[in-house]
User: What shape does this take?
Amino acid sequence: MQDIVIILIATVLVNNFVLVRFLGLCPFMGVSGKLESAIGMALATTFVLTLSSVCSYFVNEYLLSPFGLEYLRTIAFILVIAAVVQFTEIVVRRTSPLLYQILGIYLPLITTNCAVLGVALLNVQESHGFIESAVYGFGAAVGFSLAMTLFAGLRERVAAADVPVPFQGAAIALITAGLMSLAFMGFSGLVRA
Amino acid sequence: MLVALLVVAALAVVFGALLGFAAVRFRPDDDPVVERIDRLLPQTQCGQCGYPGCRPYAEAIAGGDADINQCPPGGESTIAALADLLGRQAKPLNPDNGTTEAPRVALIDEDTCIGCTLCIQACPVDAIVGAAKQMHTVIAAECTGCDLCLPPCPVDCIDMVEVTEDIHDWVWPMPHINVRPRQQVSGSGPKAST
Assistant: This one.
Protein backbone atom coordinates (compact mmCIF):
# COMPACT_ATOMS: atom_id res chain seq x y z
CA MET A 1 0.00 0.00 0.00
CA GLN A 2 2.79 2.35 0.98
CA ASP A 3 4.63 1.51 -2.21
CA ILE A 4 1.63 2.48 -4.27
CA VAL A 5 1.26 5.85 -2.56
CA ILE A 6 4.96 6.48 -3.03
CA ILE A 7 4.78 5.60 -6.73
CA LEU A 8 1.78 7.88 -7.14
CA ILE A 9 3.43 10.88 -5.43
CA ALA A 10 6.70 10.20 -7.20
CA THR A 11 5.15 10.18 -10.66
CA VAL A 12 2.73 13.04 -10.10
CA LEU A 13 5.02 15.52 -8.37
CA VAL A 14 8.64 14.50 -8.03
CA ASN A 15 9.25 12.93 -11.42
CA ASN A 16 6.45 14.72 -13.25
CA PHE A 17 6.68 13.42 -16.80
CA VAL A 18 6.23 16.77 -18.47
CA LEU A 19 8.00 19.19 -16.20
CA VAL A 20 10.83 17.11 -14.78
CA ARG A 21 11.40 14.36 -17.34
CA PHE A 22 10.41 16.56 -20.29
CA LEU A 23 8.35 13.88 -22.03
CA GLY A 24 5.12 14.62 -23.92
CA LEU A 25 5.87 18.26 -24.61
CA CYS A 26 4.04 18.35 -27.94
CA PRO A 27 0.48 18.33 -26.55
CA PHE A 28 1.74 20.30 -23.54
CA MET A 29 2.57 23.24 -25.80
CA GLY A 30 0.03 22.51 -28.51
CA VAL A 31 -3.32 22.06 -26.75
CA SER A 32 -2.80 24.27 -23.73
CA GLY A 33 -4.25 27.44 -25.25
CA LYS A 34 -7.68 26.90 -23.73
CA LEU A 35 -8.51 25.36 -20.39
CA GLU A 36 -11.41 23.22 -21.65
CA SER A 37 -9.46 21.63 -24.49
CA ALA A 38 -6.50 21.10 -22.15
CA ILE A 39 -8.75 19.24 -19.71
CA GLY A 40 -10.18 17.17 -22.57
CA MET A 41 -6.70 16.32 -23.77
CA ALA A 42 -5.65 15.49 -20.21
CA LEU A 43 -8.61 13.11 -19.84
CA ALA A 44 -7.92 11.39 -23.16
CA THR A 45 -4.23 11.04 -22.32
CA THR A 46 -5.06 9.71 -18.85
CA PHE A 47 -7.22 7.03 -20.41
CA VAL A 48 -4.61 6.11 -23.00
CA LEU A 49 -1.68 6.16 -20.57
CA THR A 50 -3.32 3.97 -17.95
CA LEU A 51 -4.72 1.50 -20.45
CA SER A 52 -1.56 1.26 -22.54
CA SER A 53 0.55 0.89 -19.41
CA VAL A 54 -1.53 -2.12 -18.34
CA CYS A 55 -1.74 -3.58 -21.86
CA SER A 56 1.97 -3.30 -22.45
CA TYR A 57 2.59 -4.98 -19.10
CA PHE A 58 0.54 -7.97 -20.26
CA VAL A 59 2.17 -8.02 -23.68
CA ASN A 60 5.62 -7.89 -22.13
CA GLU A 61 4.91 -10.41 -19.38
CA TYR A 62 2.94 -13.06 -21.27
CA LEU A 63 4.02 -12.62 -24.87
CA LEU A 64 7.49 -11.14 -25.17
CA SER A 65 9.27 -12.54 -22.12
CA PRO A 66 8.18 -16.21 -22.46
CA PHE A 67 9.34 -16.30 -26.09
CA GLY A 68 12.54 -14.37 -25.37
CA LEU A 69 11.52 -11.52 -27.64
CA GLU A 70 12.56 -8.61 -25.43
CA TYR A 71 14.24 -6.97 -28.39
CA LEU A 72 10.79 -6.42 -29.94
CA ARG A 73 9.65 -4.42 -26.94
CA THR A 74 9.61 -0.97 -28.51
CA ILE A 75 7.78 -2.01 -31.66
CA ALA A 76 5.28 -4.15 -29.74
CA PHE A 77 4.57 -1.31 -27.31
CA ILE A 78 4.07 1.14 -30.15
CA LEU A 79 1.59 -1.31 -31.66
CA VAL A 80 -0.25 -1.49 -28.33
CA ILE A 81 -0.28 2.28 -27.93
CA ALA A 82 -1.47 2.86 -31.48
CA ALA A 83 -4.35 0.42 -30.96
CA VAL A 84 -5.34 2.01 -27.64
CA VAL A 85 -5.21 5.51 -29.13
CA GLN A 86 -7.31 4.44 -32.09
CA PHE A 87 -9.82 2.91 -29.71
CA THR A 88 -9.89 6.13 -27.66
CA GLU A 89 -10.41 8.15 -30.82
CA ILE A 90 -13.40 6.03 -31.83
CA VAL A 91 -14.91 6.33 -28.36
CA VAL A 92 -14.32 10.09 -28.08
CA ARG A 93 -15.76 10.65 -31.52
CA ARG A 94 -18.86 8.76 -30.52
CA THR A 95 -19.32 10.26 -27.06
CA SER A 96 -18.23 13.86 -27.65
CA PRO A 97 -17.98 15.08 -31.25
CA LEU A 98 -17.19 18.57 -29.92
CA LEU A 99 -14.19 17.36 -27.95
CA TYR A 100 -13.17 15.33 -31.00
CA GLN A 101 -13.17 18.51 -33.07
CA ILE A 102 -11.30 20.54 -30.44
CA LEU A 103 -8.57 17.94 -29.98
CA GLY A 104 -8.25 17.49 -33.74
CA ILE A 105 -4.86 16.22 -34.80
CA TYR A 106 -3.60 16.07 -31.21
CA LEU A 107 -5.78 13.04 -30.46
CA PRO A 108 -4.07 10.69 -32.95
CA LEU A 109 -0.81 12.36 -31.98
CA ILE A 110 -1.07 10.78 -28.52
CA THR A 111 0.35 7.75 -30.36
CA THR A 112 3.65 9.54 -30.76
CA ASN A 113 3.49 11.12 -27.32
CA CYS A 114 6.79 9.98 -25.87
CA ALA A 115 5.33 10.04 -22.35
CA VAL A 116 3.13 7.07 -23.28
CA LEU A 117 5.96 4.99 -24.68
CA GLY A 118 8.21 6.26 -21.88
CA VAL A 119 5.84 4.93 -19.22
CA ALA A 120 5.61 1.52 -20.90
CA LEU A 121 9.40 1.23 -21.21
CA LEU A 122 10.10 2.55 -17.71
CA ASN A 123 7.66 -0.02 -16.30
CA VAL A 124 9.80 -2.76 -17.79
CA GLN A 125 13.04 -1.11 -16.74
CA GLU A 126 11.90 -0.80 -13.13
CA SER A 127 10.37 -4.33 -13.29
CA HIS A 128 6.97 -3.22 -12.03
CA GLY A 129 4.23 -5.77 -11.34
CA PHE A 130 0.68 -5.48 -12.62
CA ILE A 131 -0.66 -3.15 -9.90
CA GLU A 132 2.53 -1.11 -9.90
CA SER A 133 2.37 -0.71 -13.69
CA ALA A 134 -1.22 0.46 -13.54
CA VAL A 135 -0.48 2.93 -10.74
CA TYR A 136 2.68 4.13 -12.47
CA GLY A 137 0.74 4.76 -15.71
CA PHE A 138 -2.11 6.42 -13.87
CA GLY A 139 0.28 8.54 -11.79
CA ALA A 140 2.13 9.66 -14.90
CA ALA A 141 -1.22 10.56 -16.46
CA VAL A 142 -2.32 12.51 -13.39
CA GLY A 143 1.01 14.34 -13.43
CA PHE A 144 0.54 15.12 -17.11
CA SER A 145 -3.02 16.32 -16.46
CA LEU A 146 -1.87 18.47 -13.56
CA ALA A 147 0.88 20.13 -15.57
CA MET A 148 -1.42 20.53 -18.56
CA THR A 149 -4.28 22.11 -16.60
CA LEU A 150 -2.03 24.45 -14.62
CA PHE A 151 -0.23 25.51 -17.77
CA ALA A 152 -3.47 26.11 -19.67
CA GLY A 153 -4.72 28.25 -16.78
CA LEU A 154 -1.49 30.24 -16.82
CA ARG A 155 -1.63 30.69 -20.57
CA GLU A 156 -5.18 32.00 -20.40
CA ARG A 157 -3.95 34.64 -17.96
CA VAL A 158 -0.88 35.38 -20.03
CA ALA A 159 -3.07 35.87 -23.10
CA ALA A 160 -4.83 38.71 -21.30
CA ALA A 161 -1.63 40.16 -19.86
CA ASP A 162 0.38 43.01 -21.30
CA VAL A 163 3.28 41.01 -22.71
CA PRO A 164 6.10 42.92 -24.45
CA VAL A 165 5.87 42.43 -28.21
CA PRO A 166 9.07 40.35 -28.68
CA PHE A 167 7.87 37.85 -26.05
CA GLN A 168 4.35 37.38 -27.31
CA GLY A 169 3.10 33.97 -28.42
CA ALA A 170 5.37 30.95 -28.23
CA ALA A 171 8.19 32.81 -26.46
CA ILE A 172 6.22 33.68 -23.34
CA ALA A 173 4.66 30.19 -23.37
CA LEU A 174 8.10 28.59 -23.30
CA ILE A 175 9.27 30.94 -20.55
CA THR A 176 6.16 30.10 -18.54
CA ALA A 177 6.77 26.38 -19.03
CA GLY A 178 10.38 26.83 -17.91
CA LEU A 179 9.33 28.63 -14.74
CA MET A 180 6.75 25.93 -14.00
CA SER A 181 9.40 23.29 -14.50
CA LEU A 182 11.69 25.14 -12.05
CA ALA A 183 8.87 25.20 -9.53
CA PHE A 184 8.34 21.44 -9.89
CA MET A 185 12.06 20.84 -9.37
CA GLY A 186 11.34 21.97 -5.82
CA PHE A 187 9.59 18.65 -5.20
CA SER A 188 12.77 16.65 -5.72
CA GLY A 189 13.73 14.79 -2.57
CA LEU A 190 10.13 14.65 -1.34
CA VAL A 191 10.06 10.86 -1.74
CA ARG A 192 12.65 8.45 -3.06
CA ALA A 193 11.49 6.37 -6.00
CA MET B 1 12.66 -15.48 -36.03
CA LEU B 2 9.48 -17.32 -36.96
CA VAL B 3 8.23 -16.99 -33.38
CA ALA B 4 8.85 -13.25 -33.49
CA LEU B 5 6.90 -12.95 -36.74
CA LEU B 6 4.05 -15.02 -35.35
CA VAL B 7 3.87 -13.04 -32.11
CA VAL B 8 3.79 -9.67 -33.85
CA ALA B 9 1.28 -10.95 -36.39
CA ALA B 10 -0.91 -12.31 -33.60
CA LEU B 11 -0.75 -8.98 -31.79
CA ALA B 12 -1.69 -7.12 -34.95
CA VAL B 13 -4.59 -9.49 -35.67
CA VAL B 14 -5.96 -9.21 -32.13
CA PHE B 15 -5.78 -5.42 -32.11
CA GLY B 16 -7.19 -5.21 -35.62
CA ALA B 17 -10.18 -7.35 -34.63
CA LEU B 18 -10.69 -5.28 -31.49
CA LEU B 19 -10.61 -2.00 -33.41
CA GLY B 20 -12.87 -3.37 -36.10
CA PHE B 21 -15.39 -4.38 -33.47
CA ALA B 22 -15.10 -0.98 -31.75
CA ALA B 23 -15.57 0.87 -35.02
CA VAL B 24 -18.84 -0.96 -35.64
CA ARG B 25 -19.98 -0.78 -32.03
CA PHE B 26 -19.23 2.94 -31.60
CA ARG B 27 -20.20 4.14 -35.06
CA PRO B 28 -20.57 7.96 -34.96
CA ASP B 29 -24.05 9.34 -35.43
CA ASP B 30 -23.16 12.24 -37.68
CA ASP B 31 -23.62 12.00 -41.41
CA PRO B 32 -20.22 12.44 -43.03
CA VAL B 33 -21.79 13.91 -46.18
CA VAL B 34 -23.31 16.77 -44.17
CA GLU B 35 -19.92 17.37 -42.55
CA ARG B 36 -18.19 17.52 -45.91
CA ILE B 37 -20.78 19.86 -47.41
CA ASP B 38 -20.65 22.06 -44.34
CA ARG B 39 -16.89 22.31 -44.65
CA LEU B 40 -17.23 23.68 -48.20
CA LEU B 41 -19.67 26.41 -47.19
CA PRO B 42 -18.22 29.82 -46.26
CA GLN B 43 -19.58 29.75 -42.66
CA THR B 44 -20.87 33.31 -42.87
CA GLN B 45 -24.14 32.14 -41.21
CA CYS B 46 -25.86 34.89 -43.22
CA GLY B 47 -29.06 33.00 -43.98
CA GLN B 48 -29.27 34.23 -47.57
CA CYS B 49 -29.84 30.64 -48.70
CA GLY B 50 -33.14 30.62 -46.83
CA TYR B 51 -31.86 28.43 -44.00
CA PRO B 52 -30.85 29.64 -40.53
CA GLY B 53 -27.17 28.98 -41.10
CA CYS B 54 -24.57 27.07 -43.04
CA ARG B 55 -25.03 23.80 -41.18
CA PRO B 56 -28.82 23.64 -41.76
CA TYR B 57 -28.23 24.47 -45.42
CA ALA B 58 -25.70 21.65 -45.62
CA GLU B 59 -28.25 19.28 -44.10
CA ALA B 60 -30.87 20.48 -46.60
CA ILE B 61 -28.49 19.88 -49.52
CA ALA B 62 -27.65 16.41 -48.23
CA GLY B 63 -31.35 15.68 -47.77
CA GLY B 64 -32.15 16.82 -51.30
CA ASP B 65 -34.38 19.71 -50.14
CA ALA B 66 -32.15 22.53 -51.35
CA ASP B 67 -30.20 23.17 -54.50
CA ILE B 68 -26.47 23.84 -54.49
CA ASN B 69 -26.71 27.33 -56.02
CA GLN B 70 -28.19 29.23 -53.08
CA CYS B 71 -25.05 30.54 -51.40
CA PRO B 72 -24.14 34.09 -52.53
CA PRO B 73 -21.13 34.59 -50.21
CA GLY B 74 -19.58 31.38 -51.47
CA GLY B 75 -20.14 32.31 -55.08
CA GLU B 76 -19.11 30.27 -58.07
CA SER B 77 -16.19 28.54 -56.40
CA THR B 78 -18.43 27.09 -53.68
CA ILE B 79 -20.99 25.93 -56.23
CA ALA B 80 -18.24 24.28 -58.25
CA ALA B 81 -16.85 22.57 -55.16
CA LEU B 82 -20.31 21.36 -54.13
CA ALA B 83 -21.04 20.09 -57.64
CA ASP B 84 -17.72 18.28 -57.58
CA LEU B 85 -18.44 16.70 -54.19
CA LEU B 86 -21.98 15.64 -55.00
CA GLY B 87 -21.38 14.67 -58.61
CA ARG B 88 -23.92 17.17 -59.91
CA GLN B 89 -23.83 19.74 -62.66
CA ALA B 90 -22.60 23.18 -61.58
CA LYS B 91 -25.12 25.93 -62.25
CA PRO B 92 -25.15 29.71 -61.90
CA LEU B 93 -26.09 31.31 -58.60
CA ASN B 94 -29.82 31.60 -58.00
CA PRO B 95 -30.53 35.37 -58.21
CA ASP B 96 -33.37 35.02 -55.66
CA ASN B 97 -30.78 34.45 -52.97
CA GLY B 98 -28.69 37.52 -53.76
CA THR B 99 -25.51 38.32 -55.60
CA THR B 100 -21.90 37.70 -54.81
CA GLU B 101 -20.00 40.75 -53.66
CA ALA B 102 -16.50 41.49 -52.61
CA PRO B 103 -15.78 40.45 -49.00
CA ARG B 104 -16.95 43.10 -46.59
CA VAL B 105 -17.06 43.71 -42.86
CA ALA B 106 -19.47 45.76 -40.80
CA LEU B 107 -18.23 49.02 -39.31
CA ILE B 108 -20.17 50.82 -36.58
CA ASP B 109 -20.10 54.60 -36.66
CA GLU B 110 -19.29 55.00 -33.01
CA ASP B 111 -20.48 58.62 -32.81
CA THR B 112 -23.98 57.67 -33.89
CA CYS B 113 -24.34 54.40 -31.98
CA ILE B 114 -26.85 54.67 -29.13
CA GLY B 115 -26.01 51.34 -27.52
CA CYS B 116 -29.31 49.57 -28.12
CA THR B 117 -27.78 46.05 -28.41
CA LEU B 118 -30.16 45.14 -31.28
CA CYS B 119 -27.29 44.43 -33.67
CA ILE B 120 -25.60 42.23 -31.06
CA GLN B 121 -28.69 40.05 -30.95
CA ALA B 122 -28.83 39.87 -34.72
CA CYS B 123 -25.18 38.88 -35.22
CA PRO B 124 -24.96 35.15 -36.01
CA VAL B 125 -21.27 34.87 -35.14
CA ASP B 126 -21.11 37.09 -32.02
CA ALA B 127 -18.74 39.52 -33.70
CA ILE B 128 -20.22 42.63 -32.07
CA VAL B 129 -19.24 43.60 -28.55
CA GLY B 130 -20.92 46.20 -26.37
CA ALA B 131 -23.52 46.60 -23.65
CA ALA B 132 -26.77 48.50 -23.17
CA LYS B 133 -26.20 52.28 -23.39
CA GLN B 134 -22.54 51.61 -24.19
CA MET B 135 -20.95 52.09 -27.57
CA HIS B 136 -20.75 48.90 -29.66
CA THR B 137 -17.99 47.83 -31.95
CA VAL B 138 -17.38 45.08 -34.49
CA ILE B 139 -14.54 42.59 -34.19
CA ALA B 140 -13.45 42.73 -37.80
CA ALA B 141 -11.66 39.37 -37.68
CA GLU B 142 -14.90 37.62 -36.64
CA CYS B 143 -17.32 39.52 -38.91
CA THR B 144 -18.47 37.48 -41.89
CA GLY B 145 -20.08 40.40 -43.73
CA CYS B 146 -23.56 38.89 -43.67
CA ASP B 147 -25.51 42.19 -43.47
CA LEU B 148 -27.84 40.79 -40.79
CA CYS B 149 -27.02 43.63 -38.38
CA LEU B 150 -28.09 46.36 -40.81
CA PRO B 151 -31.91 46.05 -40.62
CA PRO B 152 -32.27 46.03 -36.81
CA CYS B 153 -30.17 49.20 -36.29
CA PRO B 154 -32.59 52.06 -35.39
CA VAL B 155 -30.10 54.83 -36.21
CA ASP B 156 -28.48 53.27 -39.29
CA CYS B 157 -25.00 53.63 -37.90
CA ILE B 158 -23.61 50.44 -39.43
CA ASP B 159 -21.77 50.56 -42.75
CA MET B 160 -20.44 47.68 -44.75
CA VAL B 161 -16.88 48.44 -45.83
CA GLU B 162 -14.88 46.40 -48.28
CA VAL B 163 -11.99 44.47 -46.83
CA THR B 164 -8.70 45.96 -47.86
CA GLU B 165 -5.73 43.71 -48.24
CA ASP B 166 -3.24 43.89 -45.40
CA ILE B 167 -0.32 41.89 -44.13
CA HIS B 168 -2.60 39.33 -42.47
CA ASP B 169 -4.65 38.25 -45.44
CA TRP B 170 -2.39 38.99 -48.36
CA VAL B 171 -1.59 35.95 -50.46
CA TRP B 172 0.81 35.43 -53.29
CA PRO B 173 -0.87 36.17 -56.60
CA MET B 174 -1.58 33.19 -58.79
CA PRO B 175 1.25 32.53 -61.22
CA HIS B 176 0.56 34.39 -64.42
CA ILE B 177 1.11 32.30 -67.50
CA ASN B 178 1.03 33.85 -70.93
CA VAL B 179 -0.95 31.66 -73.26
CA ARG B 180 -0.47 32.68 -76.85
CA PRO B 181 -1.36 30.74 -79.95
CA ARG B 182 1.75 29.14 -81.29
CA GLN B 183 3.22 30.57 -84.44
CA GLN B 184 3.09 27.95 -87.16
CA VAL B 185 4.94 24.86 -86.00
CA SER B 186 7.33 24.00 -88.79
CA GLY B 187 10.72 22.39 -89.18
CA SER B 188 12.24 19.96 -86.74
CA GLY B 189 14.20 21.99 -84.19
CA PRO B 190 12.36 23.14 -81.12
CA LYS B 191 11.71 26.84 -81.30
CA ALA B 192 11.74 29.17 -78.40
CA SER B 193 8.24 29.35 -77.10
CA THR B 194 6.75 31.51 -74.42
Notes: The longest helix of chain B spans residues 2-25. The beta strands of chain B are 104-108, 128-129, 137-138, 158-162. Residues 39 and 111 of chain B are 38 Å apart (CA to CA).
